[in-house]
Amino acid sequence: MAHIRSLIYNGFFFVWTAMLLAVMWLFLPFPRPATQFFVRLWGLGNRVALRLIIGLTYEIRGSENIPAGAAIIACKHQSVWETMFFHSVFRDPAYILKQELSRIPLWGWYARKCQAIVVDRSGGASALKAMVRGARIALRDGQQVIIFPEGTRVAPGNRLPYHPGVAALYSQCGVPVVPAALNSGLFWSRRAFIKKPGTVVIEFLPAISPGLDRRSFMKELADRIESATTRLEAEGRGEVPLPHLGVKESTGCESRG
pTM (2 decimals)? Predict the structure, then answer.
């Protein structure tokens, strides 16, 4: 049954994505909010399909730590799930993307139209400066900048070194960094055909205020995200029974900001 449900959802995912990519092409000449609307609709459609077809819902914890204004959200990255999630929490998030993604036909055009901050990871210091410059523009406009510090999806139970880009943003942008942990990889793992029922938990942790030196910040960020992720993974496997906390999924869009 899991294979059949996953086949149906995967089919929906590709058809839904292709359909919206085609429609969005017509709206490229329009202002950026039009493109953002379709990106939000894409994520909403996928979340509804995951709930109805797979039985996969989500829960938000630490909602009191979600900023209403400009901030940097540093999130663990395990799955495609979180790439479609943040539009349900924030009105106009700005994702930091690796340059390779911006070269995907159509998708890359829309990412740039949404003012995603594209980073050439082989560009060294000049790439970091360009990323900080782009983040400052987004933050000035009251957006939340979304960064995945490890730079790629990482399987549950594993971790990669955190890239220096997040430290550059922290030290040069002067806004809080909100760590976010999750367990999405337990249900939708990297390059996996099978999608599993359950509840993805994403937890927003207390913000790290500006002022720490680079080494202290990187240690604090990694310690918070990894320890919370380990806890959420254990809970998702049924190893740590915890009382219900947080905000259940709704069918609407709980945008902030």
Answer: 0.87
